[in-house]
Amino acid sequence: MSQKAERPVLQGQRIKTRKRDEKEKYDPTAFRDAVIAGLEKAEDLEQISKFLDTAGNKLDYRRYGEVLFDILIAGGLLVPGGSISQDGEKPYTTACIFNASEDMDSMRVQEQILNKLVRRYKYLEKMFEDEMKKVLVFIRGFQPIERVKLARMTALWIANSAVPPTVLGVLYNEHLIKDSIALDFLIELFVTLKQEKGVPALITALKKGQMEHRLMDFFPLNKRTEENFSKTFNERGLGDIVKLHKAQASQEFKRELQSTIIDDIKDNKPQKEIIADIKDLSVKNSIPEQEVIVIIWTTIMSLGEWNKKEELVADQALRHLKMYNTFFSAFTTTDRSELALILKIQEYCYENMNFMNSFYKIIVLFYKLEIISEDSILKWYREAHSPKGKMHFLEKMRPFVEWLLNAEEESGSEEDE
Question: What is the pTM of this model?
Answer without folding.
Answer: 0.70
